[in-house]
Each structure stands twice: as C-alpha cells, then as structure tokens.
Fold this protein.
Amino acid sequence: MIGSETPPGRFERLVNRLPEGAVLRGVFVSLLAVSAAIVYLDYRDLAAATADVERTMRTEPLPLQRPEPGDQVRPYLPRTIPVGPDRGEPTLPGYDGPVGGEAMAEPMRFVAAPGGAVTAIGRIEIGTGAQLTEFLAEQGIRAGSTVHLHSPGGSVDDAIEMAREIRRLRLSTSVPDDGYCASACPLVLAGGVTRAAGTDAWVGVHQVYAVDIPGMPELRDVGASISEIQATIARCQELLVEMGVDPAVWIKAMQTPPEELYVLTEDDLSTYRMVQAEPDASLFIGPPAPEALLDEGNVAVTPATSPDAG
C-alpha cells in the first residue's frame, strides 16, 4: 500500500533495544581486545628472539639435565658447553687452557701432543678445514694417531673437509669424557677410521641452517636458501655413507630445530656406528685357499665382507 513503511527486521529490532552508545562501546572493546592480542603476540615474538640471542651469544656454561633415552633434546649452545652435577671438564691431550665458553667461542685451535695425538678445540669456521690439513702436514701426523674433538660445531663444509682429510690419513677420532661435539662436529667425528666417545660426552645433531657470512652477498631469495640447505644435507649424508656411518642418524638431525640439539645416547652412537672400536673390514679379492689345506683343517675360512656403507 502506498505510503506504508517496511517493518524493521529482527536484527534491527534487537539493535534498537540496545541502550544508546552500546554499539559504539562494543566496537571500542573489540578493537581494544584485538590491539591487546597484537601487542601480546609481538611481545611473545620479541621475548623468544631475545632468548634466542641470549642462547647463541652465551659464553657462560649452562647447567642442563643429563640426556636420557626418550629425553634427548636440549638447547643448542654454539658458544659454550653444558654442565651438570654429573659432568666435569674434559681432559685434552697437549692442551691446558680453558675448555668452557671462552674456548668454544673462539675459532678452532689445533694442539699436538706427545705420541702423535692432536687436540681440536673451538668453533669450526670457514677455512678451518684447510688449517687442519696444513697443521697435520706440518706436524707429520701419521696413521694411527687420534684427533680429540671438543667443539660446538660451525661450518658444515669445513667439517666435511676435515673428516675426509682425517680419513685420508687413516687417523682415529675421539670425544673425551665430558666432551662436547655438537652440530657439525659429529661430521668430523665420522671421519675417524676408529671412533670413540667417552663417559658423559655429548655428541649431538640438529638441522642445517643458513648463516650470514661477512663479505659474502646474501642469498637472493628463500628458494635459493632452501636449495642450498638441501644440497648441504645431501653432502652430509653422502659423507656419512662414505665413512661407514649409518646415514639414518641424519634423520634425527633433520627432525631437530637449529636452536635445539638431539644428543645421541650410548646405544645411538653404537647403533648408527658413530663410534667404532675397529676399522671397517676390507673386501679381500684373491684365489680360494687350496682344497688340500681346507680338508686338513689348517685354514679357518671367514666369509669376506665389504665395508658397510649404511
């Protein structure tokens, strides 16, 4: 009918029943709640970033609970070592300096000890691989000697280079009692023809991550960074296979964020062949023993085995 007005809908009637200004107050409260949520999230991210900076820059030893089977993830300490009631300080052949944060924050140093032993302590930096090669040559280190490791890790490519040089010279590797071998350091450990980890030694792995390198241009995009990390992971696994270590250990690394460390138990070290008391067996190729000797029981026959590559 002309002149008639459409009656208000249900929602409009509900709004009209509200006290004057209630809608504006509701909008204001909603905006205030959203703002508070944003401030909280920003604060949480800032707190996490601050904690991460404190962790990465910390040089004071950090008390941490001893890892146990099923409880093996701990904070990664790139510039210091974990301490605890059951941990002392490692003894490193030929080295009598500090073994805590002061040493871990410095570039890796090499010390020769009587009997041909070598101590490698500190961070693995870009160029450390070449420095180890030069040091071993200058000191005349020969097959059968042991490189004792105490390091928070560092440059993956240099760790791989160190492992291959150690294997080329037929050297052994060891992490001493209460020692620390983290991040890229286990790759160096893998290079030994025999490998050992002492009591309460921490040998830990985690994800490969990209870092800014002074003097080098930044990666162009995220895709390039991911591609480089994937290539590095492949090189790590290739090295482990080459050294006779079970590459399945790197699954634990890829499952553990960079800010954390998966500490391998004694069983893990043995299962993945990160420790090994004897060199891998070599494949024997040659003629079979004469049947006459076999018949007389003068020869004990053991099937030839090839190096286990994982």
